[in-house]
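Tokens help. One example:
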Amino acid sequence: MTTIRINNAKFYAYHGVLDYEKQYGNEFEVDIEMKCDITSLGDSDDLKKTVDYLSVYKFTEKIFNERKYNLIETVNQNICKGILENFPMVCSVRVKIRKPNAPLGIIDSVEVENKLKRD
């Protein structure tokens, strides 16, 4: 099993329960860890025989930008499910989403982590 990670991808989006979060937006940080079966890759050096992490990044960006969510938990679940549905070599995925400027007080960030496996 091969692990492929995208670390600290940053997206600007309009998620949150409060109206001003939906109006003014916030930066979000995302870590994606994928356990992948790429045994067919061998020595071929063929992108089609592995997980194209640019495509994973663009898919994640699309989820962040296609609508405004109340909860980053929902964003996280949609990313996890979508990666498993759209990237067949991914056997399991772990996604962490951080919201650095969550309106709680003086904090570094809030973070939601989710892990899903292929059935």
